Amino acid sequence: MLRASHLPPSATPAISVLRFSLISSTNNFFPPSNLHKISPYSSPSLTFLPKTLEPSLPRPSPFGFKRLIPMASPNASASLSAESGSGGGREILVQHLLVKEDDVKLLLDLQQRISGGEDLSDLAVEYSLCPSKEEGGMLGWVRKGQMVPEFEEAAFSAPLNKVVRCKTKFGWHLLQVLSEREESLLKDIQPEGLHARIQDPSFIDEAQLIDHREPDECHHGMRSLQVAKWLQTQGFRKVYNVAGGIHAYALKADQSIPTY
């Protein structure tokens, strides 16, 4: 049985990104009570991702206007190849700044300063109301269905590297799409499928296994799925989540694992 403690003590880029803190936002994107310490050195993992994949960019701040993607039922059945995400679409790398709805004068002034050559990142740090200001307004890689409709429409229709503005219920945004790519995939793997793959020694060289369990939480893989979705925003292109979490793994694949 492979345990996360079998991973080398020296942190690879893939492990290093997991050590970043998840910062809650004004919209409770990741409520503090729901956050989990992600340790690569604890018990059997709920999520794994290929070792060869590394985050391509710094982590984004959880942004206040982003709503959580509805998570699948813990009883939902999925095979190794079944996608939990939409897949096959387009992802964009977005940064923005947010000002109040009635602060139109500031909005126009900032837009003029950007047109004059000032950097959106610098202005976001100074003026933005979004928690992403700490990252220069960087929201990371996003896909359709993750943002409020008005922001999504503006972002996915914006030309690359051109600052555009849009209005949402949160206020006025100046946003810029920095890059685009084919959408990454988030897939479920059944406990039996993971257990079978663990028996293959080559699997150890192909994947990072991650446990982010805390006592009395993450029974059925819901928290691991939430973190798996977050990993996608960090640049990981292929992430697997164990369907049903550690509870299902203990019942269906390895009864030596204690349930709780």
UniProtKB/TrEMBL annotation:
Keyword Ligase: no
Top-level class of the enzyme under EC nomenclature: isomerase
PROSITE patterns: PPIC_PPIASE_2 (PS50198), RHODANESE_3 (PS50206)
Keyword Isomerase annotated: yes
E.C. number(s) listed in UniProt: 5.2.1.8
Keywords: Isomerase, Rotamase
Origin superkingdom: Eukaryota
Rhodanese domain residues: 218-258
Domain called PpiC: residue spans: 89-179
GO molecular function per UniProt: peptidyl-prolyl cis-trans isomerase activity
Signal peptide: none
Reaction catalyzed: [protein]-peptidylproline (omega=180) = [protein]-peptidylproline (omega=0)
Gene3D superfamilies reported in the protein's UniProt record: 3.10.50.40, Rhodanese-like domain
One Pfam family recorded for the sequence: Rotamase_3
Protein name per the record: Peptidyl-prolyl cis-trans isomerase
Organism: Morus notabilis
Lineage: Eukaryota, Viridiplantae, Streptophyta, Embryophyta, Tracheophyta
